[in-house]
Structures are given as C-alpha cells and as structure tokens.
Amino acid sequence: MSETGRHADVPEETLPSERETAHVSVEKAENPFADPGLPPHEHRIQDIDERAAKRSERVVALQFLVSMLATVAFIASYVAVPVDKIVYIWPIGHISALNFALGLSLGVALFCIGAGAVHWARTLMSDVEVADERHPIEAEPEVKAKVMEDFAQGAKESGFGRRKLVRNTLFGALAMVPLSGVVLLRDLGPLPGTKLRTTGWKRGVRLVNQSTNLPLRPEDIAVGSLTFAKPEGLEDDAEDFNVQIAKDALMIVRIKPEDIKDKQELSWSYDGIVAYSKICTHVGCPISLYEQQTHHVLCPCHQSTFDLSDGGRVIFGPAGHALPQLHIMVKDGFLEAASGFEEPVGPSFWERG
C-alpha cells in the first residue's frame, strides 16, 4: 500500500511533521535504551520488625562466637594432637589427624567470620539502592564532601555503633583468628641458645675419615688431595647425625708450608695439613670442589670461592666471611683437634660478632 493510501483517512493536521519525525529519530539514535529507573523499594522484615532484627543480630553474633570457638579448637588441636597420628576420614581415606583438625577448625573460624559479615549486611545494614551519576576521576570538593557524608550515613545505617553485640563479637572473632598464626610459630622450635656457636670439636677429638670411618694419620693426607673428616664418636646411624655433621664436617688438605700465606693458618696446621669447615659461610651448602694448583675451594651452590692457603678468605661470590679453621695437632700418630672452632661455622646470623 502506498503512503497516500495509508494516510488517506487521517486528517493532515494530526500527522507528525517532518521536523518532529527527525527529532524522534535522533533521540532514539542517541538513547537506544530507555532508563527503566529503580524498582520500588521493598522493606525486609528486619526493617519493620525489631524482634526479627534482634533475631538476625543473635544469628550474626552466634556465627562470630563459633569462629572464636573454632580458633580455640585450632590452638588446642595444635598442642594436643600428636604429629604422627593417622585417622580414617570418609571419603578422603587415611590422613594426618593433626592436619585434618587444623584445617577443619581454621576453615570453620574463617567461614563463620565471612558468613556472619554477609548475614549482617543482608539483614541488618541498609539495602536501599541509590543511583548516582558518573563523575570524572578527579573528584570535586563537593563530591568528596558527599562521599564522607555518605560514609557517615552508611556507618550509621549499618548499626555498627548501636548493635553492640554484633560489634563486640566481630571484634572478638577478628582478634582471635590471628592467634592461629601466632601458635604456628611454635614450629620454629626453641631458641638456639649456644647451638650455633658450638660444634662437636674440642681438644683431643680425633679426625676420622668420613668415607672409611678410620682415624686419620698425617701420612694419609697427600699433597693436593682433599679429604672429608668428622669428629670421632659421631656415627652415621646416630639419630642426630644430620644435625651434627651440618656443623662438624671438615675439609682436610695438605699444602706445602711455604705456600701458606697466613701466619695463624700455618701455626694451626701440622706439616702443611690444614683443616677448615666444609660448610659454606653463605647459606650453608657443603663445599666439595678443590683446585690443587691455586688451593681454592668452590661452593657449588652460589660459586663462593675461598683461598685455603690464605686463611680461607673469600675471593669471590656472596659469602660474607672466611671459612673457620680448626686448630689441629698430632698425638699418638693420629690427627686431633687442638681446640674447638673459635668462631661459629656456617652462614652468618645477626648475633654473630
């Protein structure tokens, strides 16, 4: 049907003009979707019934209290449950009782704080939707003032100051949860005391070949060779062997006396045989690479290099100080320690002099 046919029966004065038609078309192009606005606000039962609000408050407080009890259970489990205890939990299977108790109690503690906060927000805080226009990134002073006003209003509507039961139990739950992390510090063990400063070496302790478990004689050490030693009495199957050898391990090398540069090193040696700690002074790796022409030893972890002909000083790498030397002597044909180390072995620590 033609345009004339469609509007033949419509009075001309009632038809939209071309200008009006063009205006409507432009408006639709600029705003293709109409603003539906906000739906009417529906009040919650807690908004109109104070008894319902009190019930919600008690539910929130109960969740925070459960969180506090779970934190106490975490600490009690950490102290009371044996580390090696295994239990069967369906459908997981056999697991560590300690890990299960710690995970369950800490999970409950954190979940209850989150659940309590969500329930508080959904039932007790104001839920009125507010529309605001977009604004530039840099806020105007009036906008900043409005934000602070809105924040104060939100704090007031949240009931944080008025609902003391919720507020106090929340503070209690948040204050107790960090105790879980504090208790875990027990795994750091007791303070070391003098353990970092003492080793198994003392006067009269023989040097034992770590490979053969036989006491070392001077003639067993050839010029240019590298021998690893441990103190006599330290057995490989001892319960604390790994702890002790980490401090007691020695490197024994034989250098021509005329090649030794450090006077103390020469006086602490026997016929060119010198004994140094095998533990790198950077992070405690065992040193095992020896270059007999230069008398340098290299730590394979981070390439710290030490000169065994010059007091074990550092000549390259991140190590902070020289390798400690053990004063040795010969008695009844065997190499022995003339004293213990005069300084701590291994990596530096802040109390070290």
Automatic annotation (TrEMBL):
Region Disordered, as annotated, extends over 1-25
The protein's matches in Gene3D superfamilies, at most eight in alphabetical order, are given as:
Rieske [2Fe-2S] iron-sulphur domain
**What name goes with this protein?**
Cytochrome bc1 complex Rieske iron-sulfur subunit
Tell me which family the UniProt entry assigns to this protein: Belongs to the Rieske iron-sulfur protein family.
What is the species of this protein? Streptomyces piniterrae
Q: What cofactor does this protein call for?
A: [2Fe-2S] cluster
Q: Which residue ranges traverse the bilayer?
A: 59-80, 100-121, 165-185
Does Transmembrane helix show up as a keyword for this record?
Answer: yes
Q: Name one Pfam family in it.
A: QcrA_N
